[in-house]
Design a protein that fits this description.
With about 475 residues, the protein is an alpha+beta fold. It contains 13 helices and 20 strands. Strand 12 and strand 13 form a beta hairpin. The chain binds flavin-adenine dinucleotide (FAD).
Length: about 475
């Protein structure tokens, strides 16, 4: 068995599951998305004992369906929410300089001055990027980490984004933000970092009900039910938070991305930013990704009713994204070139607004009448601050030993580069070593965990189908070797 302290795997889980049923911990965290793992890390690094449970897998919910950007908060400036914008820029600074520089790269974003982009949109975009740079300066993020915005010529714009329509192209403005290697990878890494400090991370354990001092839970692979006792409980279940805390009304908003072959846009390393028709504050982004793919997003659609296990993109959303992108391209991307699509639900707190796009993205931290804490809303970018606020409130309401949060200066675990080894799939470059690592160190229990959350091969159905059997065989063998 792998002895690395941050290693998560089925053998460790088996031992810790038994301990979780027997021993009372300081903090029980419910939900293993970015918010929950952030809370677990914040609490354990303050010296508190922690158990985290997730009903499914790490990053099973919204956290794996984001745009994978570490935002500077420009969007919030447009809505006049200066506090949230500054918080975002500050957290981006910490993530890119101290906490996770190994998981984030600076990403150039080009707003092209194409025929389809009006003078008003060009001006608003340029001013906005200047304001974004002020946020960067206020957060003290150096230019070597995030270069300043610059106007670029048509020639440079075409070099950065070869698929642009050159007719009437008048250059553009180039700015920079942070891009995660992957959002699910961030979640797994925060969880591993918490585990390295002693937190128990238990996937496939569902909370049935919460109290101030614990939860009734079910281990979902066996159906076995038991109690977990804790001095404080934090509900970090995102769009599902209302099911455990009736005082919260979540208003989920669906955001969809489509997946394209990057080669169809000339394999750019820069992102493309296209204003929605007639808008100066809403954009469609085309973002380069791993495996020679590119994602185009995103939508913002009210998604009322029962919360689905996995949200599904709709055909009108896919068509909207394609047509927005095609407004600035020389050769339109066709529907049959779309390799995949995915959707996530924003856990927005209902504020009575008409449109979900108008609901604040600031997070909510609240103590329920029964004495547990709920934390939701916010962004991936601000997970650390959300976690700090949630643990502060848990300490206060449950009189836990009070220590200050340490996460602002705590670097996340490294990921050993899995030794190269047998290539399992040529198209995606999946290796046997990568699957073994996912099972031995990153807590994968099934082939779905590997394809959909430890790697992102599952974002394209054809890739997933091709890799399924061969990856499954490696998962089964590796699990048997762990016992
Ligand atoms: C389309 C889209 C794009 C986005 N892009 C960005 C971006 O680029 N940058 C950014 O900063 N933010 C972005 N966001 C916001 C960000 O993704 C979310 O705010 C964040 O991922 C929410 O994380 P969470 O941990 O609160 O929820 P989730 O990730 O949904 O985690 C909740 C977890 O709780 C578990 N759970 C549910 N019920 C139970 C139960 N009863 N017992 C145990 N476990 C349970 C679930 O299995 C799940 O794993 C985006 C959001 C969307 C929808």
């Amino acid at each position: 068995m792998t002895r690395e302290p941050s290693a998560l795997n089925v053998a460790r889980r088996r031992t810790e599951l038994m301990l979780a049923a027997e021993e009372r911990v300081d903090v029980l965290v419910v939900g293993g998305g970015i918010t929950g793992v952030g809370v677990a890390l914040d609490a354990v690094s303050r010296g508190l004992t922690v158990t985290l449970i997730d009903a499914e897998d790490l990053a099973f919910g919204t956290s794996r369906f984001s745009s994978k950007l570490v935002h500077g908060g420009l969007r919030y400036l447009a809505t006049g929410d200066i506090a949230t914008a500054r918080e975002s820029a500050h957290e981006r600074h910490l993530l890119m300089t101290t906490i996770a520089p190994h998981l984030i790269r600076p990403l150039g974003q080009l707003l092209p001055f194409s025929q389809a982009v009006t003078l008003r949109q060009r001006t608003a975009g340029t001013v906005g990027m200047g304001l974004g740079d002020l946020l960067r300066m206020r957060a003290h993020t150096p230019r070597r980490v995030l270069p300043a915005p610059a106007l670029v010529s048509a020639r440079t714009a075409l070099r950065l984004m070869p698929a642009l329509d050159q007719r009437g192209l008048r250059g553009g403005v180039l700015s920079h933000d942070g891009q995660l290697v992957d959002d699910a990878r961030l979640v797994t890494t925060v969880a591993r970092t918490a585990a390295s400090l002693g937190a128990r991370i238990l996937t496939r354990v569902r909370a049935l009900s919460l109290r101030a001092d614990g939860a009734s839970v079910e281990e979902t692979t066996t159906g076995e039910r038991f109690e977990i006792r804790a001095r404080a409980v934090v509900n970090a279940t995102g769009v599902w938070a209302g099911a455990l805390d009736q005082s919260i009304t979540v208003r989920p908003s669906r955001g969809t991305h489509i997946v394209l072959d990057a080669a169809d846009l000339g394999t750019p390393s820069t992102a493309l930013t296209i204003p929605h028709e007639g808008s100066i504050s809403r954009y469609v982004f085309a973002l380069p990704r791993a495996y020679g793919r590119l994602i185009v997003g995103l939508t913002d659609e009210d998604s009322p009713g029962a919360v689905p296990r996995v949200a599904q993109p709709t055909e009108p959303e896919i068509e909207f994204l394609l047509s927005s992108l095609n407004r600035v391209l020389a050769t339109p991307v066709r529907r049959d070139q779309v390799r995949g699509a995915f959707a996530g639900l924003r856990p927005l707190v209902d504020s009575g607004s008409d449109s979900t796009a108008d609901i604040s993205r600031r997070h909510l931290v609240t103590a329920s009448d029964s004495g547990f804490v709920s934390v939701l809303g916010g962004k991936l970018t601000t997970y650390r601050r959300m976690a700090e606020d949630a643990v502060d409130l848990a300490i206060e309401t449950r009189s836990l030993p009070s220590r200050r949060s340490r996460t602002a200066s705590l670097r996340l675990a490294e990921r050993d580069v899995p030794a190269s080894g047998e290539l399992l799939d040529e198209r995606t470059g999946l290796t046997e070593a990568e699957v073994v690592y996912a099972v031995r160190v990153e807590g994968a229990m099934t082939v779905d965990d590997v394809l959909d959350r430890r790697t992102r091969i599952g974002l394209v159905d054809a890739d997933r189908t091709r890799c399924l059997a061969v990856a499954d065989a490696v998962v089964t063998r590796t699990i048997s070797e762990l016992f």
